[in-house]
Design brief:
By secondary structure, this protein is an all-alpha fold. It has one domain. It has helices spanning about 1-40, 40-65, 70-85, 90-100, 100-125, 135-155, 160-190. The longest helix has about 35 residues, at about 1-40. The protein is globular. The termini are far apart.
Length: about 200
């Protein structure tokens, strides 16, 4: 029975990884290229904000490679921050809502899909939050994906080196986010296109 649960969890984790690659990497890269070609400023700005916010997912992967328990928390928080980053900006939302064309339609569809995917991922990720304070069987299953990623793209690179880059990335992310919350947000409010 326990083995079946672990196998089901493993399949769900790998499905989530595949969906994450599709929704959080491939689709926004295609949209970014398309936006660059069409020169749609509101969508461009929203995608730049998206990449800044979603970098927490990449940081989480590197933390997981190094078996840093903070990764379980940062990965879960990323699923909350991504839709907030996509929907928070009033001026971008208003501008995108009136944009005509296929790019605007594709962007709006992707943004809704991301909100749905992140909502499901946030609920799914709740079972991994106890991994922040202690090892459990589910923790090992979730760590399999980043280790496979390491073998694919970073074969031969020591785990500690990748973990160092994860910690450094997290430190920069927290610093940047702190400056945004204390300086940027009070100055601009929900308007991303100011300045």
């Amino acid at each position: 029975m326990q083995e079946t649960k672990t196998m089901d969890l493993r399949q769900a984790v790998w499905l989530d990884f595949r969906l994450a690659v599709l929704f959080t990497v491939i689709a926004p890269l295609i949209l970014l290229g398309w936006t660059f070609q069409v020169k749609s400023n509101p969508i461009w700005r929203s995608l730049v904000i998206y990449w800044r916010v979603s970098s927490l997912l990449a940081i989480s992967v590197y933390l997981l490679i190094a078996a840093n328990p903070l990764a379980y928390l940062t990965g879960w928080l990323a699923r909350i921050l991504i839709p907030v980053g996509l929907w928070f900006w009033k001026d971008i939302n208003d501008a995108v809502d009136i944009l005509p064309g296929k790019l605007a339609f594709a962007y709006r569809a992707w943004r809704w899909a991301m909100a749905f995917y992140c909502a499901i991922g946030t609920v799914f990720g709740l079972q991994f939050l106890p991994c922040v304070v202690g090892r459990q069987p589910a923790c090992t299953v979730l760590a399999e994906v980043p280790l496979a990623f390491k073998e694919l793209l970073h074969r031969g690179v020591p785990v500690n080196t990748l973990g160092f880059w994860g910690i450094l990335g997290l430190a920069v992310y927290v610093l940047y986010f702190g400056v945004f919350l204390t300086v940027g947000l009070p100055r601009t409010g929900r308007f991303a296109l100011r300045g």
